[in-house]
Amino acid sequence: MRISLRFELASRYAAAVALGIALIAAIGYLVLRDSLDRQINASLIAVASIQAASVTDDPSGEMHFHEWDVTVEEAASLGDLNRYSQIWNESGESLLRSRYLTRDLPLDHARLAETAAGEFTWSEGQLFEVRVRSIYYPLGRLGPSHERHVLQVAAPLKARDGTLRRAGQYLVTIVLLVSIGSFLGSWWLAGKTVRPVNDIIQQAEGIDGALLGQRISAYAETKEFASLVHVLNTMLSRIDKAFESQRRFTADASHELRSPLTALRGELELALRKERTGEEYRSAIASSLEEATRLSDVTADLLTLARSDAGVMTLRLECVDLGERVMAALERLRGRLSKKEVETVVSLEPDAKGMFDLKLVDQLIWNLLDNAVKYCHEAGTIDVSLASSGSGFTLEVADTGPGIPEKDVDRIFDRFSRVDEAHSAEGTGLGLSIVRAIALAHGGSVTASNREGGGAVFRVSLPVTSPEA
Ligand code: ADP
Fold it and tell me: Can you give the pLDDT at residue 143?
């Protein structure tokens, strides 16, 4: 079950207040009870000592209390203020009783025995349906003629019990009222505390796919919530950016696939329109094949990038000599290089071995060299260098082509980004994004810059894991 934060805050605060108040109330109650008891006990001791003196006063041994001259009715009207006295012998026989006491005091025989033996004791009992507290006073202490006589003086506890009961009721009521009050107060306060979160949630809920450009403005300036709002807004920006690039990517991809498909279809429709010679059919098939190859290239590139996006570009690591792979790629480009009369200057670190994915590394090298040949001016130079650096290798491919306009250096690795449509017509605009995806998958990086005197330089760093590892 989900508990609302507001309820949790309010109930915790109210419980803490209630506990504190209840504790104070309990202490107050105990202090009051103790003080009332002390007063009653002090009065019992005072009356007992007066009555003991009065009882043992007469040398003839005759016992009489120090009494007011009041009737039973008058005594009854004094209620709680009365102190009743009675003398017992050790076997519980009444020897003397206050004049206005119409029945025996409640006798506790165990206490009587203890007191007859010389100890002061206390007990509580019932007299006329009223609780009374008694003190037992050993009269033997005051002379041998009263050996084993016990004086009992009792005080009604009605007023004391009533006071305590009322005080208890007041205190319980106060505790309840304060608890309810503090719950309501903290409910209101907690409501104010959680309201910003609700407002922020409400605004966040209002931002759907179509309104990703919107941001949360609620409580963006409040110290406690500013960072939450900032985090959410940053996340929204990231999602917005990802959405946008995904949208662009999908649009570009479909456009990229549609062009060769349309060309292919046109080519085939044209070929079928009438009877053709063998030569014409061959030419139509050859150009259809060209479009089909382009289609399969784009599809393969898109698949590689989709894998990289999904984080499933799994590397089949094996021991690869990067120098060998560069030489193999240059060998494949030999025809195009000599056609453009491009000179290559190659400087390779011998034994540049490490654990890489052979196919992906080949693709990375190919994409860079292919671009270099594509964009290099006629009779230009391509410099390829492979050097060990720190914990890996750095592959550098530089050409003497037009270079990259400064404003495009950063976006050149984006998908379908083409700087110069005229030069890039044959490319898909995916080659460099694939280079970056492969470098990243290997834990490396790639940068682009322009060389002095013209031409582009691409630098790839690949950290190396040794074949042993
Ligand atoms: P493409 O398949 O179109 O070449 P790439 O992702 O490989 O796609 O390159 C993206 C863009 O970067 C190219 O269209 C081109 O404008 C630019 N570019 C790539 N390599 C070079 C280079 N060596 N010199 C100049 N521009 C380049």
Answer: 74
Atom of ligand 1 nearest to the CA of 420: 16
**Comparing C-alpha atoms, which of 446, 304, 293 is closest to residue 363?**
304
Does ligand 1 have an atom closer than 6 angstroms to the CB of 424? yes
Q: 417 in ligand 1 pocket by Cβ < 6 Å? A: yes
Q: Is 375 close to ligand 1, i.e. is its CB under 6 Å away? A: yes
Pocket lining: 51 vs ligand 1, CB cutoff 6 Å: no
Q: Which residue's CA is the nearest one to ligand 1's atom 13?
A: 418
Reported as a single tens digit per residue, the pLDDT across 50-103 is 888 887 777 777 777 877 777 777 777 777 777 888 999 888 888 888 877 788
CA of 204 to the centre of ligand 1 (A): 40
Which atom, in ligand 1's list, is nearest to the CA of 402?
Answer: 25
- Output the CA 333–ligand 1 centroid distance in Å: 17
Per residue in 272-312, pLDDT (tens digit) is: 998 889 899 999 999 899 889 888 888 888 888 888 877 77
pLDDT over 70 at 374, yes or no? yes
CB of 410 sitting under 6 A from ligand 1? no
Among residues 423, 426, 465, the alpha carbon closest in space to that of 444 is found at 465
Give mean pLDDT, residues 383-394: 92
36 token code pair = 């009332």
Angle at alpha carbon of residue 358, lines to 352 and 360, rounded to 5°: 115
How remote is the CA of residue 182 from the centroid of ligand 1, in Å?
71
Mean pLDDT, the chain, integer: 87
Give the residue, by CA position, lying nearest to ligand 1 atom 2.
427
Residue 125 near ligand 1, beta carbon < 6 Å? no
Partners of 136 in the β-ladder: 121, 152
- State the pLDDT at residue 469: 44
Q: Whose CA is nearest to atom 20 of ligand 1?
A: 371
**CB atoms inside a 10 Å sphere around CB 29:** 16
Distance 423 CA to ligand 1 centre (A): 8
In the reported structure, the alpha carbon of residue 254 is separated from the centroid of ligand 1 by a whole-number distance in angstroms of 20
Buried b (16+ CB within 10 A) or exposed e, 382-415: bbbbbeeeeebbbbbbbbbbbbbeeeebeebbbb
Give pTM, 2 decimals.
0.55
